[in-house]
Fold these 4 entries.
Entry 1:
Amino acid sequence: MNVLLWIIQILLAAVFAGAGAAKLTQPKEKLRDRMGWVDPVPPSQVKALGAVELLAALGLVLPALTGIATVLTPLAAVGLVIVMVGGILVHVRRAKSQDTADKRRLETQGAVVCAVLLVLAAVVAWGRFGPYPL
């Protein structure tokens, strides 16, 4: 189970490091093509979310690798659970307001992706706080 948790941690870290770095380095207009939800959100909030995602990605791996402040790893996972709850809510709300079936389907897919990431982060939090601590 420890190996599985490491695999999930690395996978989540890669996903959130990429997403966070994109939000931090790309202008909002460029993100709009892949992340339609950024339209009503101020650029500073998009950047803040990117920073949170990047820090969580580091928190999933670095404390576990170094053995320093290992409690940060499950805390980072809990933080990502909270972020993904927000992501699900944003996508569900946007799906209801879309005017075409294709746009509603894309928002629904976004909510499902957030739900899968939420479950993976919850598994890491459970495992690292519980029976498989670092």
Entry 2:
Amino acid sequence: MTPESQGEVHARAFALLPLIVFLTIFLGSGIYHSIIGTEFAFYQVKAPVAALPAIILAVLLYRGQFNAAIDEFLKGASHPNLILMFMVFMLAGAFASTTSAIGSVDATVQMGLSIIPPAFVLPMLFIISAFIATAMGTSMGTIAACAPIAFGFSQVTNIEVVYAIGAVVGGAMFGDNLSMISDTTIAATSSQKVQLRDKFKVNVWIAVPAALVTIVIYALLSHDSQILAYKEYNLWLILPYVAVFFLAFSRLHVLAVLSIGVVLSGLIGIAVNPDFSLIKLNNAVYDGFVGMFEVALLSMFLGGLSAIMQKEGGLKWLIERIYSMTRLLKVGRQRAGELGLSFLVIFSNLFVANNTVAIILSGDMAREVAKEYGVDPKRAAALLDIFSCVIQGVIPYGAQLLLACSIAKMSPVELMGHIYYCWVLAIFAILAIIFRFPKFKMTE
């Protein structure tokens, strides 16, 4: 028994060579800079630049006319799903940048300090980080905002810094995985062609129980009852997060939700902060665009590269190898498929040290695996997002741990074992595959 034929496309391992070139450049640079002690070693060579030699090689290896190869690349790079992803990336960046500029992040943190009992410092750090990351859709922005506060808590309490920083990173990865406007969520749902809310319905049944278990763990670790001071905050500054959070569950288009969030943030910023002007709003929106440009451009580059590899049979060859591997697992057809697509994103993330890039890389292949094994697309999207966030949250050369550890002056290797949420989430995701939960009607 073999995977269904994909038209006249014949499986060719050689067609994957451009992808190997991309990974070699990106991973090789990261390893080299790690050896020489460069900070953020895996981010010295920009991913879109590393993709250019791979794209050139793919065009040169194309078995057809040179111009036809370029046309194939352009078709893949301009696919409607990728254009939508590009637009959402831009607006998500604008929203995160604008809310940060008007002080919404700090207001949210101060609100958390004011309402959560001081005896539960670690659960508080995890919950605040989870909320901010869910609202902002970015783990990096959350860590940058909350890690200094967590480090400060560790200095005035008897809580070890590794626990405090671990709680922040764990909460940040929770939000990054579950947020409606996270780039990982957008990439996962776009690649599997499902609605954001459909993926959320699956994801929430795995992520929330894992978060609750993590909160219990942190409650048991947190014993300090010292009263923690907080600053005054303006409740109006939290409104943009609340509005986007609830609008995301409506049937309103995600572009409309994000646009409303940006406009609302700008109006509130101008109303409550005399120093925040239209010019500053303009700069904040543009800064958000710039911050998301790299991942948006990379998604288009890899979309075009994926189209060529699929046309040349590279993706089919990889799917057949995964099929052969999973067929040896006596766990049932759908379970085997879910394990296969999970392995795809895990290995991709280990190579590129970026969960969004890993999903973009493995998205097309995962969709074909899901189709072959009868895996519900919304489960496929949820598992891609979950396992990419699990890996990204624990690898010591990932940006999240590097940023957190640079703030806390500690080693990423020391921290990786204390990101309890990611390890618990991995266990719940594996259980979800084994016991087939949650169960919903198959997506049409």
Entry 3:
Amino acid sequence: MDTIFALASARGKAGVSVIRLSGPKAWDAVSALAGKLPQTRRASLRRLRMEGEVLDEALVLTFAAGASFTGEAAAELHIHGATATVSAVLRALAGFEGLRMAEAGEFTRRALVNGRLDLTQVEGLADLIDAETDAQRRQALRVLSGAVGEKAEGWRRDLIRAAALLEVTIDFADEDVPLDVAPEVLGLIDGVMRTLRVEVAGYGAAERIRDGFEVAIIGRPNAGKSTLLNVLAGREAAITSAIAGTTRDVIEVRMDLGGLAVTLLDTAGLRDTRDDVERIGVRRAVGRAEGADLRVFLLDDTDDLPMIQPQPGDIVVRGKADLRPVGAGDVPGISAKTGAGLATLVETITNTLGARAASAGIATRVRHRERLERAISAMESACDEIARGPQRTEVAAEHLRHAIRAIDALVGRVDVEDLLDNIFASFCIGK
């Protein structure tokens, strides 16, 4: 492979910038600039020179092949983050024969090719780079740490054992096999299927942690929805007016609630109207509300909830509590003007979504869920064939091989090439 290099830290002026190199000529290039190399994994201050000119003073680190992120001989230059300094060092590296600028995600791709990461770990790293909230960070770190690969290895081991038992009965079909392997095979398959179904069931919550939950604020016109959104967002995200029907389209505000990424939706007031534009807004409001993860119904004096009804887990509150005294046993009141009840509302939203996030599995992407479902389907078919008798053993074994292949595809042992370009396109150049 070529030796690649790139700026690994953010572009622009900074206190320190990091340039990474990886490949067979990484150490030679750094030695040409910095002189004697430090011991591997130990930083040492060196003056970088090119044709007698001092480029900068830098901390130099080297990593041996097999012990670096990419699995290749690698090095890092921690230089001063001035734009001119970064450009000068990058120009110097580009002048060495056999060195070239890295493509997007190429360092991570080499880590995958060299067995330092599996495919799910690569996806976890991509999610970690994009993480905006604490929950996203924790979930991405769990995937990056190899949690998916560890579980997949256990599933694969059990399925291989089950398939091997079936193969024994095929190989010795003309002889007396002293043991009925069906009970052990079915037990192994059932154990794997049960854990896979749990992971599939937790996919929705994991996806929401990764992409964010949606919470729709629902109510009649002038119930105070836009004012509530603005207060929760801490800015004037939506126009507020005493004129009914001001909000025509769905307004979205991204927030961090309790470490969870949450998008609040301010929707058009729900009512029958002759205004064509407002009618479109109402239709969109109903559609987004029905598709949201959670709905906050904001009641007015009428206590009327037109067009859409609360689902289990939805939140119902009464708006403008500063103008309407709340009677005993009435729904909780809030006031965006005085702040009354808002802390409780935010806590309720956070706790409700947090409880759903707690059920998240390790499958965080559609690809993960599809591979798990494919494995489950193949195992169900294998069980059906075993139940039909010994004459179907060979077909059952083939279904188990399909299940093993689906698990292998999950972590990238097979069927990986068509995914790589799409995955690495989201990475920055220095990653």
Entry 4:
Amino acid sequence: MEGIVEGEARGEARGEAKGSASQIIEIIENIMSELQCPLEKACKAAGKTVSEYRQSEQICGKV
């Protein structure tokens, strides 16, 4: 039973991380599209770094 609970907790944490990463990607891509600006400028406008954006891509399997 303990293993099941642990597995569920891990799955939930992964789901939350993927959801958060997905939001970061969506926000930054929307900024790039609306403002016709490069990734660096969009990240700055979103209060994120390019590194955070790239990590989000990896989490979501976009790379």
